[in-house]
Design goal:
Elements lengths: L2 E7 L3 H10 L8 E7 L4 E7 L2 H7 L10 E7 L14 E2 L5 E9 L2 H10 L11 H10 L4 H11 L2 E9 L6 E6 L4 E4 L3 E5 L11 E4 L4 E5 L4 E5 L4 E2 L4 E2 L4 H5 L6 H7 L1 H9 L3 E2 L2 E2 L8 H6 L2 E6 L1 H18 L3 E5 H4 L10 E7 L5 H12 L3 E6 L5 H5 L2 E4 L12 H20 L5 H23 L1 H9 L6 E6 L2 H17 L2 E6 L16 E6 L5 H13 L3 E7 L5 H4 L2 E5 L7 H20 L17
Parallel strand pairs: 18-19, 18-20, 20-21, 21-22, 23-24, 23-25, 25-26, 26-27
Antiparallel strand pairs: 1-4, 1-10, 2-3, 2-4, 5-6, 6-7, 7-8, 8-12, 9-10, 9-11, 11-15, 12-13, 13-14, 16-17
Helix pairs in contact: 3-4, 4-5, 8-14, 8-15, 10-14, 10-17, 15-20, 16-20, 17-20
The structure holds 6-O-phosphono-alpha-D-glucopyranose.
């Protein structure tokens, strides 16, 4: 999500930190800061907005002398983008400075504990607890403080740390958030991604989970979480800078697809506590949730497709009626909105013009609004009465993948929360739902691991003219997103149809060899969709089926089958979409299209 850089060596640190941060710009950010030890104290400078503001403030680093320091570009998760929330963060007496990527899931608990011990917090961030926690455990040995703090922190973190009393060292820590160490000629560096260090060195160490690196001017020592020294082999980076920004992936879209297990974890894990769904920022009491009479979900593009899935999940679990609208339609159709309705706007960017206009329309009518948004501090996030963030991090590829996956997770959690408040599910059911949700990251990872088979299949359809995606219920919603992915990045005409609707017109378009992707994950509807598959095949269609493991029946009907692992039927979208994303991606690559920047499209559509 955010970018981290650290340096210790012969040269001035600040210009190197700023330069390294500029190489992480593609990660997106809303504020930046650096901390440098000037021989007497740790000095911090921060600026909101683009990195340029920080460069100007520090005269390209000239006003911050010193040979060791850490820097950060922030992509806000906890707390709005602001100077006070920007990193680095200090402990109370400013003897420790910390930069952080990831999410400290138990930060509320830790904050309460530390406040109880007299710590005064200045920011809303989860990161600030790290600085205070380190100070609490610091008794003269930084390594001891770091390892003790690691035992207390839950969640994901990559940390860069400097201690005033040990300014000859920079520390790096990693758990479930990337961090590398670069071994340069005139000094050593830490960074959350390789491009930040490439100008200075190509000799890099990859820090693994729960490992610590202590850098001095001359050398680097690695430790495990128990503080025992460990040996590490460096890797020589031979990618060019462009490739490095993509972390070695050929395209941002592929990189972002591979980030989905982590994205799902980040959006999910902090919101499950002791068997309960906790959505702190939602700020809706159970009574308020029970009073909701009808939900209107309004969005554009993939976010709309996520909304179509949400209808099934909300109605099924929480028994609350849901209407789903395209924002561009909603705003002009004079929708019937009643006092106890809730309007949910789903948006990755939080800036989509139609979605924002729909939000304003609902607010103008005095209806409660909730945004499910990825970009913290964006217009929709700011203007909605309440906001629930998806923690997908910046998404660069125009075709959304990880942000869509995170939207699904946010909806599942919200639906379970509503169901619990409205008493429409038993405690036992909730337990099962949460268990299945927590298995999703691993299952997604497994599906991504099978990319070879999908790539092989996709290569056969590079020249396809029309592709149809069909399914019933949630499978129809999945088909819509699968179809959009294909057409937006490969320029192949594709359509999604409710499988039961095919006979009312679309089946006339089926010719010998037409590819139909049938999504068949809803057990109750297996038989119905299989009948449709048989009808399609008898008209010449080649049918690719995406179905649950165990549905062997389908092999008799479809030509090619991709299995997804078993999960609760409400959550199958999160798994079935993975092979469809991979399929679109490989068709696009095979055709030589500009995968990350497809023609005529924009990532954030800020005009009607
Ligand atoms: C554009 C993007 C889509 C996205 C849609 C809605 O069309 O290419 O990926 O789904 O806008 O964007 P939002 O930022 O509101 O989710």
């Amino acid at each position: 999500m955010c970018g981290i850089v650290g340096y210790i060596g012969e040269a001035q640190a600040a210009p190197i930190l700023l330069d390294g941060l500029s190489k992480l710009e593609y990660r997106g950010y809303d504020s930046a800061g650096i901390a440098v030890y000037d021989g007497e104290e740790i000095r911090v400078q921060k600026a909101t907005g683009r990195l340029k503001a920080l460069s100007e403030l520090t005269h390209d680093g000239a006003t911050m002398p010193g040979v060791s320091g850490i820097g950060h570009t922030r992509w806000a998760t906890h707390g709005a983008p602001s100077n006070v929330n920007a990193h680095p963060h200090y402990n109370q007496d400013k003897t420790i400075a910390v930069v952080h990527n990831g999410i400290i899931e138990n930060y509320m608990k830790l904050r309460k504990y530390l406040e109880g011990k007299g710590c005064q917090f200045v920011s809303e961030t989860d990161t600030e607890v790290v600085a205070h926690l380190l100070a609490r455990y610091y008794k003269g040995d930084p390594l001891e403080a770091v390892t003790k703090a690691m035992h207390r922190m839950e969640g994901s973190y990559a940390l860069g740390i400097i201690f005033k009393d040990h300014a000859d060292k920079v520390y790096a820590v990693r758990k479930d958030s990337p961090m590398i160490v670069g071994h340069g000629k005139d000094g050593n560096l830490i960074a959350s991604d390789v491009p930040a260090v490439l100008k200075y060195t190509r000799k890099v160490y990859f820090i693994q989970n729960e490992e610590i690196a202590a850098l001095t001017k001359e050398g680097i020592t690695f430790f495990n979480v128990d503080g025992d020294e460990i040996a590490k082999e460096p890797t020589t980076i031979d990618w060019d800078v462009n490739a490095a920004e993509k972390g070695g992936y050929e395209h941002f879209m592929l990189k972002e697809m591979y980030e989905q297990p982590q994205t799902v974890k980040d959006t999910l894990n902090p919101r499950i506590r002791d068997g309960e769904v906790v959505i702190e920022e939602l700020g809706m009491e159970d009574g308020e949730i029970c009073a909701v009479n009808r939900i209107h979900i309004v969005a554009c593009g993939s976010a709309y497709h996520a909304g179509v899935t949400a209808k099934y999940v909300f109605e099924g679990l929480a028994r609350v009626p849901v209407e789903v609208d395209l924002a561009s339609e909603f705003r002009y159709r004079n929708p019937i909105l009643q006092q106890d309705d809730l309007v949910i706007i789903i948006s990755q960017s939080g800036e989509t013009a139609d979605s924002l206009a729909a939000l304003r329309e609902a607010k103008a009518r005095g209806i409660k609004t909730l945004g499910i948004v990825n970009v913290v501090g964006s217009s929709i996030a700011r203007e909605a009465d309440r906001v629930m963030y998806t923690w997908a991090g910046p998404e660069i590829a125009v075709a959304t993948t990880k942000a869509y996956s995170a939207q699904l997770i946010a909806e599942y959690l919200l639906a379970i929360k509503f169901a619990q408040a409205r008493n429409t599910v038993s405690a036992q059911e909730v337990e099962g739902l949460l268990r299945d949700l927590q298995k999703l990251p691993e299952q997604i990872e497994m599906l991504l691991g099978n990319k070879g088979r999908i790539q092989h299949f996709a290569n056969r359809y590079i020249a396809a003219k029309d592709v149809f995606f069909v399914g019933r219920g949630i499978d129809y919603a999945i088909s819509m997103e699968g179809s959009l992915k294909l057409k937006e990045i490969s320029y192949i005409h594709s359509e999604a149809y409710a499988a039961g609707e095919l006979k009312h017109g679309t089946i006339s378009l089926i010719e010998e060899g037409t590819l139909v992707a049938a999504v068949v994950t809803q057990e109750e509807l297996y038989k119905k969709t299989i009948s449709n598959i048989v009808e399609l095949r008898s008209r010449g269609a080649f049918v690719l089926a995406v179905t649950n493991t165990g549905n062997r029946e389908i092999e008799k009907a479809a030509d090619y089958v991709i299995y997804i692992p078993q999960t609760n039927w409400y959550f199958t979208n999160s798994l079935a979409i993975i092979p469809l994303q991979l399929f679109s991606y490989y068709v696009s690559v095979g055709k030589g299209c500009d995968v990350d920047k497809p023609r005529n499209l924009a990532k954030s559509v800020t005009v009607e």
